[in-house]
Amino acid sequence: MEVNATGVKNGQIITSNTATYTWVVKHSDSDPNKPAQPGDGAGEGTAQPGEGTPTTPAPTSNQQGSKPATVAPKPTKPSVTPAGGSAQVATCFPKQEGGSGAVTLLPRLKDDRTAPARWVEPEAIPFLVGEKGKATTPTAIGSIPAGTKVWMIGSTQVQGVPWVGANTMNASVMNDTTGEVTWQLTSFSGPGAMEVFTSGGLGQPVGQRWFAGSGNSGSGAITIARNTHVHPNWMFTAPGTYKVGITQSATKKDGTRISGQTTLTFNVGSGSGANDGHFDLGSEVGPAGSKTVWRDANGNECTPTDVDYAAAGLSPGGALAKTGVTPITGALAVLAGGVAVLGAGILRYRQAL
Questions:
Q1: Is pLDDT larger for residue 21 or for residue 204?
Q2: Do the beta carbons of residue 135 and residue 150 sit within 8 Å?
Q3: Quick check: pTM over 0.70?
Q4: Per-residue pLDDT, 46
Q5: CB 148 within 8 A of CB 137
């Protein structure tokens, strides 16, 4: 297991050393009931001195369903990753332009189907959850009984199912707000019930319940730390169109509370919409009607590179962030008789520096 950390400081990409850990999972050859001791395995061994020791940290956010074991690597002085003999420096920067009125929170959907990724209006992309999303609940999930045939978007990516997560990593959110971002289900309509939740630990399919909806009413709220990328499970019990209204709220650095509302559309069973790819609902801070434009130091429009995205605190053009990735995953729980998997309850990305 090789581990390192990457981040951005003053526009430069910084990386730590790479630490290697070896895990021996077996019984002693001499006594099958005795736990393995250091050195069992004829050289397979344990981590080398100074490389780190296993620790179990406290949860880093209230989305966690369990406390996964991690390894604390040996402290080391960060080094600059060169590119062509020189440091990688950002040259293209995001700016909020246009709009009018007071600064507020503007819901945005990060669409990773293109490179670079795009932040678009959430209402512009409906989601289609078709045959690939069918499953059967192995146990009761909120208001949904065990043995129910459902359609779902899991917390792990499945080909042929849109992967919809939550993202508080937008540069303007990082720069202009403080504390957590609150998400609240403020409207709901659909032909069946909906449950949104993170996966739990071993033997616990539900970690934390985010939202629940049925008929024309819904409820639920969750707080998500800034600089976080998380994928919950979205579960629907009947085919048809679901309208899910979500209001995001945050606190500006001057103490002002701001919020913005948007509605996600899920076409379940059949219909039109994005039926694959990675998406994150998030937000920007700016005047109502404004948009993000990328410009260079001279004010000219430019196309951001991975370095520019990293310097702005955003994921690069690919599906996953490359700036200080810290994955936190719950135990896997396969849905009986289904194709989807309840797992990886949280993917949380934090800048290392």
A1: 21
A2: yes
A3: no
A4: 34
A5: yes
Please report the pLDDT score of residue 313 as a whole number: 61
Contact 241, 267 (CB under 8 A): yes
SS (H, E, C) 104-129: EEEEEEEECCCCCCEEECHHHCCEEE
Q: How confident is the model at residue 340 (pLDDT cuts 50, 70, 90)?
A: very low
Place of tokens 């169109």: 241
**Total residue length of the chain:** 353
Q: pLDDT at residue 56 above 50?
A: no
- Asked if 232 contacts 210 with a C-beta cutoff of 8 angstroms, the reply is yes
Instruction: Kindly report the average pLDDT of the chain as a whole number.
Output: 75
Cα radius of gyration rounded to whole Å, the chain: 22
Q: Which residues contact 149 (CB under 8 A, 6 or more apart)?
A: 134, 135, 136, 237
- With b for 16 or more beta-carbon neighbours within 10 A and e for fewer, the 167-193 pattern comes to bbbbbbbbebbeebbbbbbbebbbebb
User: Within its chain, how far is the Cα of 82 from the centroid?
Assistant: 29
pLDDT at 86: 53
Supply angle C-alpha 323, 324, 329, rounded to 5.
120
Q: For 179, how many CA atoms within 13 A lie in the half-sphere containing its CB? A: 13
